[in-house]
């Protein structure tokens, strides 16, 4: 593992109870950051925190990322405990129902958009002021290759991730003259609960599109995310970093 320097940095990782979120948190901890794990599932996030304790200064909180008040309270706690917020990784999200669009339930559509896109908006909006005041900020959005290409039977998820990509580009431009950089990654199928719940036929179709012909591991997502959080990432903002095993050419 390449050693990155995130000493003195404070990070929040949303959706940290899942495989990708936990891997990102571990990589940030291994690089010297203090990390707060946010998730809606109390038991799962507590377990993730317990598993990461030996890696560095880590704490957890149950936060509904779609609720501005809950996010504000969670952020205030981080700043009170650590003194600053430097890094936000918007990783939380759900894949939602896997059905044709004409059969998609409106309430499920709204749930998927809220969890993936609105939550990232609420969290990003909350941290910008503190990051700007602290003189350093890195916001990394975990989108998906589905947001680039659109995945059949995953219209809400694809739309939400496409929105996250566009929001990254907009916010990156808005903050380009500030110390806050905004980027996103677009993973292909990654070994996680989400892919475990994907029908085998659909997963096989997804994997067949990648020239590398394999599923990505969570630590591979974490490696790119961690670099985007460092000072070495200094002239990249509003950018989309592909992690699809060669599937996407842009």
Automatic annotation (TrEMBL):
Its EC number is 1.1.1.100. Pfam families: adh_short_C2 (PF13561). InterPro entries: NAD(P)-bd_dom_sf (IPR036291), Sc_DH/Rdtase_CS (IPR020904), SDR (IPR050259), SDR_fam (IPR002347). One of its GO terms (molecular function) is 3-oxoacyl-[acyl-carrier-protein] reductase (NADPH) activity. Transmembrane segments: none annotated. PROSITE patterns: ADH_SHORT (PS00061). Keywords: Oxidoreductase. One of its GO terms (biological process) is monocarboxylic acid metabolic process. The keyword Transcription regulation does not apply. Belongs to the short-chain dehydrogenases/reductases (SDR) family. This is Short-chain dehydrogenase/reductase. It comes from Paraburkholderia xenovorans (strain LB400).
């Amino acid at each position: 593992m390449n050693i990155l320097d995130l000493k003195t940095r404070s990070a929040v990782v949303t959706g940290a109870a899942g495989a990708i979120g936990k891997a990102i948190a571990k990589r940030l901890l291994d690089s010297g950051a203090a990390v707060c794990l946010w998730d809606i599932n109390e038991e799962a996030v507590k377990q993730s925190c317990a598993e990461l304790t030996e890696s560095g200064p880590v704490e957890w909180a149950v936060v509904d990322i779609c609720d501005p008040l809950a996010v504000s309270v969670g952020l205030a706690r981080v700043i009170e405990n650590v003194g600053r917020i430097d890094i936000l990784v918007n990783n939380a999200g759900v894949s939602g129902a896997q059905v044709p669009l004409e059969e998609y339930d409106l309430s499920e559509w709204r749930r998927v958009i809220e969890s993936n896109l609105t939550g990232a908006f609420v969290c990003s909006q909350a941290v910008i002021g503190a990051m700007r005041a602290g003189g350093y900020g890195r916001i990394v959005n975990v989108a998906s290759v589905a947001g680039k290409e659109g995945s059949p039977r995953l219209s809400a998820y694809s739309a939400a991730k496409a929105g996250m990509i566009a929001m990254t580009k907009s916010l990156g431009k808005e903050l380009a003259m500030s110390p806050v950089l905004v980027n996103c990654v677009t993973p292909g199928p990654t070994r996680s609960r989400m892919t475990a719940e994907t029908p085998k036929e659909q997963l096989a179709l997804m994997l067949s599109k990648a020239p590398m012909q394999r599923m990505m591991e969570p630590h591979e997502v974490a490696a790119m995310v961690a670099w985007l959080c460092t000072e070495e990432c200094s002239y990249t903002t509003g950018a989309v970093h592909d992690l699809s095993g060669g599937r996407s050419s842009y």
